[in-house]
Specification:
Length: about 220
């Protein structure tokens, strides 16, 4: 893994390759967060190449304005990772890892901010069938969320559901059951959760019992 200064030096080189018209348009919005907002808008409009270019400019601006070890750089890196993940590009992993490096160094980083990056990287590992890495990342994201906002939150339930799905896939049904019951406990405590979410968790439990029964039958046979 390259150190942060080397990684960011590549971005400076990248900027020199940006067409002048694109650069001049982007540079009119001087603040990094304005550039990032523009990149997000372009990405939503499916102008993905332009979004990536403006996103890189936002990263350079964040570093220039606030330094390499600031939450602004982590936020831009996280967003760029998200762009690449939607595009199904393995490049997302590099950006998420860099974001995590910055989150770990930046003063004032909230657990929820770091947890989002961990969750996204965990999802990428699931898509790549890297189950052990995905489990470790999701568990770390879960711990970060609970430390920041407590156990009884929808976002915590969401991570537990992802872990349950991973455990079901790997036929670790007892662990999946524990997670899904915790999800239902969270939903019950919040009272404001939509019925659809509760129904989905119950359906997941039903699928778990169906799969575990088939698994047990297979072992007996």
């Amino acid at each position: 893994m390259r150190c942060l200064p080397v990684f960011f030096s590549y971005l400076i080189i990248f900027i020199t390759l940006i067409p002048g018209s694109v650069y001049s348009q982007a540079s009119e919005a001087k603040a990094w967060n304005e550039l990032l907002g523009e990149a997000r808008g372009l990405f939503r409009e499916r102008q993905r190449d332009s979004a990536l270019v403006i996103g890189q400019l936002a990263l350079v601006a964040a570093i220039a304005q606030n330094g390499e070890a600031d939450t602004s750089a982590a936020m831009v890196l996280h967003r760029l990772g998200g762009f690449y993940q939607v595009m199904r590009s393995p490049k997302c992993e590099e950006y998420y890892l860099r974001a995590l490096e910055v989150w770990d160094k930046a003063p004032g980083t909230r657990g929820m901010e770091r947890a989002k990056t961990l969750s996204n990287l965990g999802n990428h590992c699931i898509a790549s069938a890297r189950w052990a890495e995905a489990e470790a990342l999701l568990n770390e994201a879960l711990e970060a969320k609970i430390a920041d906002i407590g156990n009884y939150a929808v976002t915590v339930a969401s991570t537990r559901k992802k872990l349950a799905a991973l455990f079901i896939h790997r036929e670790r049904y007892d662990e999946a059951e524990v997670q899904l019951f915790k999800v239902l406990d969270i939903y019950d405590s919040l009272k404001t959760v939509k019925y659809q979410k509760v129904a989905e968790a119950i359906s997941d439990l039903g699928n778990l019992y169906t799969n575990s029964a088939r698994s047990a039958k297979g072992v007996v046979q």
